[in-house]
């Protein structure tokens, strides 16, 4: 397993949950809930930009913690298809990748993490109104912990890279 701090990101229309892990990649912990920049509310249709306060804050957290990777949750539909939320998360991850370069940004399947986060908070006694303030962080923790566990079990970086390192296409040697 690669050594280094990673950030986990749960992207919502109104808020962004942020989590981090220890340098050994063993345990994800909550960090913050950020408010999405103006214009990114549901129905606003505005795409995220590298100057949005939430993107700038994540970039600062990544730099401060010397993160080696940022893992963004990809909310696929139960069927595995991409819906509107997944396309928005991809767009957000692409902008984040540009703002945080050279830190790699990866997308990891996060189906049902928000549901699991709500359930976990309810079971731990966190009241409904207070849940809203921390559920995004809890979802970010679940996203990051899933990515850490996947890497530990497979030996490979989890999910898919976003706008990052692209391999050169292989070409056949046409001599002799």
Mind sketching the topology for me?
Elements lengths: L5 E6 L3 E7 L6 E8 L17 H13 L3 E6 L9 H17 L3 E6 L3 H11 L4 H27 L5 E2 L15
Parallel strand pairs: 1-4, 4-5
Antiparallel strand pairs: 1-2, 2-3, 5-6
Walk me through this protein's architecture.
With 176 residues, the protein is α/β, with parallel strands linked by helices. The protein has a single domain (6-161), classed as Nucleotidyltransferase, domain 5 (2-Layer Sandwich). It has four helices and six strands. It has a six-stranded mixed beta sheet with strand order 3-2-1-4-5-6, with helices on both faces. Strand 1 and strand 2 (15-21) form a beta hairpin. Helix 1 (53-65) crosses helix 2. The termini are far apart. The model is unreliable at 166-176 (pLDDT under 50).
CATH class: Alpha Beta
How many domains make up the 3D coordinates?
A: 1
User: What is the tally of helical segments?
Assistant: 4
Strand content: 15-25%
* Spatial separation of the terminal alpha carbons: 41 Å
Question: Helix amount, in percent?
Answer: 25-40%
Low-pLDDT sequence parts: 166-176
Q: Radius of gyration, Cα only, in angstroms?
A: 17 Å
Q: Say which CATH homologous superfamily is assigned.
A: YqgF/RNase H-like domain
Q: Report the sheet with the most strands, covering strand number, pairing sense and barrel closure.
A: 6 strands, mixed
Query: What would you call the structural class?
Result: alpha/beta
What series of H and E elements makes up the topology? EEEHEHEHHE
CATH fold assignment: Nucleotidyltransferase, domain 5
Instruction: Report the mean per-residue pLDDT as an integer.
Output: 84
């Amino acid at each position: 397993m690669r050594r280094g701090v990673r950030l986990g990101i749960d992207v919502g229309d109104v808020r962004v949950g942020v989590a981090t892990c220890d340098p050994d990649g063993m345990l994800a912990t909550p960090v913050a809930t950020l408010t999405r920049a103006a214009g990114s509310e549901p129905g606003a249709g505005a795409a995220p930009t590298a100057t949005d306060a939430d993107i700038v804050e994540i970039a600062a957290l990544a730099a401060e913690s010397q993160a080696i990777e940022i893992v963004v949750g990809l909310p696929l539909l139960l069927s595995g298809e991409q819906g509107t939320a997944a396309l928005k998360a991809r767009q957000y991850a692409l902008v984040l990748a540009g703002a945080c370069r050279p830190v790699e940004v990866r997308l990891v399947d996060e189906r049902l993490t928000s549901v699991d986060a709500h359930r976990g908070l309810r079971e731990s006694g966190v009241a409904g109104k207070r849940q809203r303030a921390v559920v995004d962080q809890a979802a970010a923790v679940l996203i990051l912990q899933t990515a850490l566990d996947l890497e530990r079990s497979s030996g490979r970086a989890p999910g898919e890279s976003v706008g990052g390192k692209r391999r050169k296409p292989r070409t056949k040697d046409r001599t002799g």
